[in-house]
Amino acid sequence: MDVSLPANETSFFADADALAREIPDGACVALPPDYSLVAMDVVRALIRRRARSLKLLGVPVLGLCADLLIGAGCVSEVETSAVSLGEAGAAPRFTDAVERGQLRVKDATCPMVHSGLQAAEKGVPFMPLRGVLGSDLVRHRPEWKVIQNPMSETPDPILVAGAIQPDVALFHARWADRAGNVWIGRRRELATIAHAARRCYVTFEELREGDMLEDELLAPGVLGSVYVTGVARAARGAWPLGVADVYPIDDAHLAHYADAARTPEGFQRYLEEFVWNRTHEKSSSPARSLA
Amino acid sequence: MEPYAREELLACTLARLIGDAAHVAVGAASPIPATACMLLRERNGGRPRLSLLHRRRGNPFTEGSRELFDLAGQGRIDVFFLGGAQIDGEANINLVGTGAYPRVEARFPGSFGSAFMYFAAKRTILFREEHSNRVLVPKVDFISAPGWSPPEVWRAGGPQALVTGKAIFAWQPEKRRFRLESVHPGHAAVEIREHTGFDYDAAAHIAVTAEPTPEELALLHGPVGREIASNYPDFARRVWGIAG
Q1: How far is it, in rounded angstroms, from Cα A232 to Cα A13?
Q2: Predicted confidence band of residue B61 (pLDDT cuts 50, 70, 90)
Q3: How far is CA B23 from the centre of its chain?
Q4: What is the C-alpha to C-alpha distance for residues B38 and B233, in angstroms, rounded to an integer?
Q5: What percent of chain B is modeled with pLDDT above 90?
Q6: Strand partners of residue A206
Q7: Nearest CA to CA, how far is B172 from chain A (Å)?
Q8: pTM of this structure
Q9: Nearest-angstrom CA–CA distance, A66 and A56
Q10: Fold of the domain built from segment(s) B6-240
């Protein structure tokens, strides 16, 4: 494992497009689920910069962000426990790409992803996990090893997850401060991703004055700047997904997307309107096209 | 025309199977299991504890999504729900796809946490509304999570029952085989046999699934429906006409 991770001085970037330029083609990018602060502005910027051969890691599952990147041709591989749009149904571009044999999927199960990242954040080579044995997932993931529990005198097979070190952790946060700390609240899986990844890029809703680590009420929800490579302001940057207490997930938009993306043509029209056209309104009220 | 919705019959059925569990966790896109738990909570003064994993506000966890798996691994979850694009007669479930993996014919979202939760929760209720030969198959094409494990493999719990839109099957761990427990009102045992792709045990006379009581329906139409609407707005609108 790479032990030469720098103690970052957090860089401030102009906008989500500038952050997207820091994420190289071919990178393994760890992303949170739709309910957990997705940096959607950077996802749209990655499509605009025509990113290629990204390897997405779902922590532990993926949704809209992955479906957009897959449909736009930015992705060569996904490792995830699922890809779904939640109440809006299946992820249409993911489903289509897999059924056509155009996308490699490394199927996982949620706690194996968490365990692999936890091994990386502790700097140890693996982490054991109960269960899973007998699942076909194990047969198709040769890097998942089954060992004898070394603490047991009797036969006790147990699965171990190898450390997962993504190239990039990418997510959105409610606040950043000038020291480069970001506030993620209860979404601590984002901290796990950031700890495990080589680099971490975060968009934030608002700049907060003062050092959040000196505020006892805020500090437990803070990811310290030591892990944060770069940040950029992105107001409503998670839209059409939500930020708790700021704006909710835009269910009408997700339903519109799920319907539009059923065909490649509908998906391209969606990209024209909401990705290539940068003047669209990021509104929870239905956009013009939905009227 | 029955005086209740199909979803209400299923929620009441699941509530009876949950019984006196202390802690139930309900995953994504599971409004009927969530409704079953809310119904029990309204009736039993807040028991069981319900951890709705995808609650939009006030999620029960503060350590991120791994916390569910950590506490399940410790034995703190009594009942969990799993579905399956395919479910077979050995209670194996497939959430990945049909055909010869990895070249699947139809791809489904993925295994989620099933491969762990099926082992760690003390009881798992399998729930799938569609009751057809397409879903209930002799052998799943891909085992996301196995229905049983050999004796040397750690396993805290396993399947309790399989509930579909037509019937309830009980799981017989010693025989590794389902037994038809009851058919829902309006369905017949012969119809179940015809639409089930796997073999199962059945008594000569099969009971009819208990219908919702007036008391249960009153709770569903009132406080339970309102509570469900905040997390499953589309579902609450469809079943009870309640705005989220």
Answers
A1: 5
A2: confident
A3: 15
A4: 15
A5: 83
A6: A175
A7: 19
A8: 0.94
A9: 7
A10: Glutaconate Coenzyme A-transferase (3.40.1080)
Amino acid at B35: T
- Contact residues on chain A for B232, CB-CB shorter than 8 A: 87
Domain ranges of chain A: 26-108+165-277, 122-162
Nearest by CB to residue A111, choosing from B54, B69, B155, is B69
The CATH superfamily of A26-108+165-277 is Glutaconate Coenzyme A-transferase (3.40.1080.10)
Name the one residue in this structure whose structure tokens are 């609108």. B237
Q: Rounded to a whole number, what is the largest CA-CA distance in chain A? A: 67
Nearest-Cα distance to chain B for A173, in Å, is 14
Which pLDDT does position A288 carry in this prediction? Answer: 41
The C-alpha R_g of chain B, in whole angstroms, comes to 18
Band (pLDDT 50/70/90 cuts) for residue B126 is very high
A261, two tokens: 């993306």
Share of chain B above pLDDT 70, in %: 98
| Residue ranges of chain A with per-residue pLDDT less than 50 | 1-3, 285-291
Nearest chain B residue to A67, by CA: B109
* Domain residue ranges in chain B: 6-240
- Residue B128 pLDDT: 96
ipTM: 0.94
What distance in Å separates the CA atoms of residue A8 and residue A18, rounded to the nearest whole number?
A: 18
Q: In angstroms, what separates the C-alpha of A215 from chain B's closest C-alpha?
A: 18
Summarize the confidence of residues B7-25 as an average pLDDT.
96
A100/A80 Cα distance (integer angstroms): 19
Contact (CB<8Å) B234/A114: no
Question: What stretch of H or E contains A29?
Answer: strand A28-31
